């Protein structure tokens, strides 16, 4: 076995300065992060990459919060219409006031937000799979900070006014 097989795999495209490891590591140089062009070749570039990863993890929680707020906006608007006596749109809320029928545009917006969330979650998973301790710690800290600042309204069964909102992951 040569030294590159012991330490990790050479980056794609023959780029020997970019190693990806299959085991936990604390490398600070030649760290390839998802793409061959995103590599940390020095401690300052690794610190900068860790900050980017932290912000990506925070942005995941921002998106989750945006999704919850948008759903609450749709839910609240539908119930205001129902309480206001507007029977023309009474089909948007079913009889037990728990389910809301969304328009195609609302569902499109919800789907776009969800798709971005899924992409970002897989991207964060790929960063985690670098097995670099510094990047993993940055990701976990970013997720924690994001949840601290943007996950305040995620309790299941928390009530808003007289309505109960049931949270989902």
TrEMBL record:
Protein name: Copper transport protein
A Pfam family hit: Ctr
Keyword Acetylation attributed: no
Family named by the database record: Belongs to the copper transporter (Ctr) (TC 1.A.56) family. SLC31A subfamily.
Positions in coiled-coil regions: none
Gene Ontology CC terms: membrane
GO MF terms held by the record: copper ion transmembrane transporter activity
UniProt entry keywords in alphabetical sequence: Copper, Copper transport, Ion transport, Membrane, Transmembrane, Transmembrane helix, Transport
Record's bilayer topology term: Multi-pass membrane protein
First-listed, main subcellular location of the protein, grouped into a coarse class: membrane
Sequence intervals crossing the membrane: 45-63, 108-128, 134-150
Subcellular location as annotated: Membrane
């Amino acid at each position: 076995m040569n030294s590159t097989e012991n330490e990790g795999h050479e980056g794609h495209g023959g780029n020997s300065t970019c190693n990806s490891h299959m085991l936990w590591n604390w490398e600070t140089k030649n760290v390839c992060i998802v793409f061959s062009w995103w590599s940390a070749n020095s401690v300052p570039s690794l610190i900068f990459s860790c900050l980017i990863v932290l912000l990506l993890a925070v942005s995941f929680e921002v998106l989750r919060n945006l999704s919850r707020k948008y759903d609450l906006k749709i839910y609240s608007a539908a119930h205001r219409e129902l309480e206001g006596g507007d029977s023309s749109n009474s089909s948007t809320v079913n009889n037990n006031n728990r389910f809301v029928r969304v328009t195609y545009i609302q569902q499109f917006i919800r789907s776009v937000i969800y798709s971005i969330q899924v992409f970002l979650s897989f991207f964060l998973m790929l960063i985690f799979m670098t097995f670099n301790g510094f990047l993993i710690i940055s990701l976990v800290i970013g997720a924690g900070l994001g949840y601290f600042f943007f996950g305040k309204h995620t309790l299941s069964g928390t009530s808003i006014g007289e309505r109960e909102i049931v949270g989902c992951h």
